[in-house]
Design brief:
This protein has about 300 residues and is α/β, with parallel strands linked by helices. It has eight helices and 14 strands. About 25% of the residues lie in helices and about 25% in strands. Helix 1 (about 15-20) links the parallel strand 1 and strand 2 (about 25-30). The chain is elongated and about 60 Å long. The mean pLDDT is about 90.
C-alpha cells in the first residue's frame, strides 16, 4: 500500500498525515512545493517520493503516475477535496475499482461509510484498488523516527503532452465558510435537537457567517432534512478539528463528540448543565439555545460587523 497525497503550496491536505500512517509510512507527494510538507510527516513517513509540479492538474497527474503506481496493490488518498478529484482519475487510468470514504483499510478488505452515513459497509478486495480515507477518523500516533531521505520523481508526462483532457483553473477564490468542507473549517457553530425549527438553523447560518464560521450539526437534524448530511459531525458524518467549536442545543452523544477532534476552545449552550457536551466545554452556558441565538444575533446587528 502507498499513500498518494496532493499538495498545494507546500501544505498537506486534511487527512494527509493519516493516509500516510494508514499506508505504513509509504507516501508519494505530488503538487507544488511538496518538500515544505515534510515536517508534518516526521514520525509518520518511512519512505517518501515526491513530484514537484506547479498548479493542480489531476488528469495529468493520473496519467503521469499510472505507470509508477502499477505495482502497488492499494493506492490510498485522503478524502480531501483534491484527493477526491484525483482518486477517480487514477482509478480510471489504472482500470481499478474505487472505494470512497473508507474508515479502515486492510490487506483484503475496506470498511467504508455508506448510505449517507447510516451504515458501515464492508468490501472485500478482490484485486488492486484505489481507496480514499475519511479525514480525522484514523488519527495518528507519531513514532520516534527520523524522516527518510525524499526521492524525487520526474514523470515524462506534462500538461502539454498529457493523453487526457484536464480541468482548466480559471480563478482560485478564498474559502467560503458557508460551503467549505467541515473537516477544514477553523470555526464551527453546531446546532442540535435543542434548536426548535429549521428557521433556527437559518438563524444559526446567519450568525456563523457573521463570525466567519461554518455550520455543523448532529445526526438527528440531518434525519429531519433541516441540514444536509455534509454538515453532520460524528463517526457517521464528518470528523472535524476546529480551533473553535460552539454547540447550541447539543447534548453530546458519543457518536457526535467522537467526531469533534480536539478543538482549542469549546463553548456549549444547553438547558441541561450536566450533559456530556457541557462537561466537555471550556465555557458552559446554562441557557435556552434558541433564546441565546436570538440575543447573539441582536448583538451582532448592533455591532454592525463581525
Amino acid at each position: 500500500m502507498i499513500a498518494v497525497v496532493p499538495i498545494r503550496d507546500g501544505e498537506l491536505p486534511a487527512g494527509g498525515a493519516e493516509s500516510v500512517a494508514e499506508a505504513g509510512g509509504r507516501v508519494l507527494l505530488v503538487g507544488e512545493s511538496p518538500l515544505k510538507a515534510l515536517t508534518a510527516l516526521k514520525g509518520i513517513a518511512t519512505e517518501i517520493q515526491y513530484w514537484d509540479t506547479p498548479g493542480f492538474a489531476p488528469g495529468m497527474w493520473a496519467a503521469a503516475l499510472s505507470d509508477e503506481l502499477l505495482a502497488e496493490d492499494i493506492v490510498l488518498l485522503p478524502a480531501s477535496p483534491d484527493g477526491r478529484d484525483l482518486a477517480p482519475r487514477l482509478a480510471a487510468q489504472l482500470e481499478r475499482p474505487l472505494f470512497a470514504g473508507a474508515i479502515e483499510v486492510r490487506a483484503h478488505g475496506v470498511t467504508c461509510i455508506g448510505f449517507q452515513g447510516i451504515v458501515m459497509v464492508e468490501h472485500l478486495l478482490g484485486g488492486a484498488s484505489i481507496v480514499t480515507l475519511q479525514p480525522g477518523v484514523r488519527g495518528i500516533d507519531p513514532l520516534d523516527i527520523d524522516l527518510p531521505e525524499p526521492v524525487a520523481m520526474n514523470p515524462s508526462v506534462s500538461p502539454g503532452n498529457a493523453p487526457v483532457p484536464d480541468a482548466e483553473i480559471m480563478e482560485v477564490l478564498p474559502p467560503d465558510v458557508t460551503t467549505m468542507d467541515l473537516a477544514e473549517a477553523p470555526r464551527i457553530l453546531g446546532g442540535g435537537n435543542g434548536l426548535e425549527s429549521a428557521e433556527r438553523f437559518e438563524q444559526l447560518g446567519r450568525i456563523a457567517k457573521a463570525l466567519n464560521a461554518s455550520v455543523g450539526t448532529t445526526r438527528v437534524i440531518t434525519d429531519k432534512s433541516w441540514l444536509p448530511h455534509s454538515r453532520q459531525i460524528g463517526t457517521t458524518g464528518v470528523v472535524v478539528n476546529p480551533e473553535l467549536y460552539m454547540a447550541f442545543g447539543i447534548s453530546g452523544a458519543v457518536q457526535h463528540t467522537s467526531g469533534l477532534g480536539q478543538p482549542l476552545h469549546t463553548i456549549s449552550v444547553n438547558t441541561e448543565p450536566h450533559c456530556p457536551m457541557m462537561d466537555l466545554a471550556d465555557l458552559a452556558i446554562v441557557s435556552d439555545a434558541n433564546e441565546t441565538l436570538t440575543e447573539l444575533e441582536r448583538l451582532l446587528m448592533l455591532r454592525g460587523s463581525p
